[in-house]
Amino acid sequence: MTSPVFTPRVFSGIQPSGGLTLGNYLGAIKRFVDMQDDAFETIYCMVDLHAITVWQDPADLRRNTRELCAGFIASGINPEKSILINQSQVPEHAQLAWIFNCVARMGWMQRMTQFKDKAGKNAQNASLGLFAYPALMAADILIYHATHVPVGEDQKQHLELTRDIATKFNHDFSVDFFPLTEPVIKGAATRVMSLRDGSKKMSKSDPSDASRINMTDDSDTIAKKIRKAKTDPDGLPSEAKGLEERPEARNLVNIYAALADQTVAEVLTEMGGKQFSEFKPILADLAVAKLSPISTEMARLVAEPDEIDRLLTAGAQQARDITAPILRQTYDIVGMIPPKHV
Ligand code: AMP
Ligand code: TRP
């Protein structure tokens, strides 16, 4: 059998669980924007079905989904170039996820570190959905036959599982139907760390607000958080190896590089030798210059929820032109009888 050639297609998603951070922006959204201008079809998703694997207040979920959509658009995702969707409006995601629940093995799921982290000590009390989460994620990707998935470092294991599911499905049914999707984890900011502790990921769930920059923070707050960010007493080195064993210093340099679209080496050539008292205000100015137009535009967009809802409705229609035929073919491969249209 000759292998099918899959159209280069990018899919990625973010949970509307409240509060986009600089980590989401640099690790994910900014790179979504870059890929939309390359030779890819791009599909970006607010994964509300993933968000409800842990409790979400219904009113908050609605607000956060629209705010995330505003964040995507304000950051430069253009609904004319990318398909922008809300996961629950494209039912084929959940339908394919059920098939994948029957392909994935319990042992694979039990190895997922995100499940262990999120379920915590009381895993018996976690939702069944939280356990099955990676099978839904694989379905999000493979219902489009997506070939590339830009994500932050923390999603690597889920993407390996997506390839395992595709491989097992293709093998079990002797087909070459699902592609082996490539994770795209690159750039200076695949893992943006907490501003208070260089060993922890910057996260919307960290109890300390000073640990992160939120996309909705105003200029003064951004500048203050950077000024107060934890560092060590040394100045900036002129080469990257001088950042080894200095997680907080490395994090601030990575953030600068990602915001400025430079490599770490370029940043250090320019900034090497400066003290943090000098570097932090430069970083704060850059962060404010890049982020404040985005937060202003987000605020304008969330004030027009009807417009957002219209965009998402249109996105779902476009998406279903791709997902409905792929689900039909999947059902056929598995042996399900299609309805007879009269
Ligand atoms: P989440 O908010 O968990 O749905 O994450 C959405 C996307 O942002 C995923 O691609 C994550 O890998 C990415 N992301 C989240 N936090 C960070 C971080 N601190 N550094 C880099 N990428 C991140
Ligand atoms: N699991 C991802 C996260 O927590 C979100 C996500 C769901 C996703 N489905 C996806 C990311 C498909 C990429 C592709 O960040």
The CATH fourth-level homologous superfamily of the largest domain: HUPs
Q: What fraction of residues sit in β-strands? A: 5-15%
Identify the quaternary structure here.
Answer: single chain
The class by helix and strand makeup works out as mainly alpha
SSE string, helix = H, strand = E? EHEHHEHHHHEHEHHHHH
Mean pLDDT: 95
Number of DSSP helices? 13
Low-confidence parts lasting 5 or more residues at pLDDT below 50?
none
**Helix fraction by DSSP (H/I, runs of at least 4):** 40-55%
Please give the order of strands in the largest beta sheet.
1-2-3
Mind telling me the CATH class of the largest domain? Alpha Beta
Bulk shape: globular
Question: How many domains?
Answer: 2
Which molecules other than protein and nucleic acid are bound?
A: adenosine monophosphate, tryptophan
Return Rg in Å: 21 Å
Describe this structure in words.
- There is one protein chain.
- This protein is mainly α and 342 residues long.
- The chain has two domains: 9-190 and 304-334, Rossmann fold; 209-300, Tyrosyl-Transfer RNA Synthetase, CATH 1.10.240.10.
- Helices cover 53% and strands 7% of the residues.
- The chain contains 13 helices and five strands.
- It has helices spanning 22-36, 48-51, 58-75, 92-101, 106-110, 113-119, 128-142, 156-172, 219-228, 247-260, 264-271, 276-302, 305-334; strands spanning 9-14, 41-46, 82-86, 148-150, 182-184.
- The protein has a three-stranded parallel sheet with strand order 1-2-3. Strands 4-5 form a two-stranded parallel ribbon.
- Helix 1 (22-36) links the parallel strand 1 and strand 2 (41-46).
- Helix 10 crosses helix 11 (264-271).
- The chain is globular, with a radius of gyration of 21 Å.
- The mean pLDDT is 95.
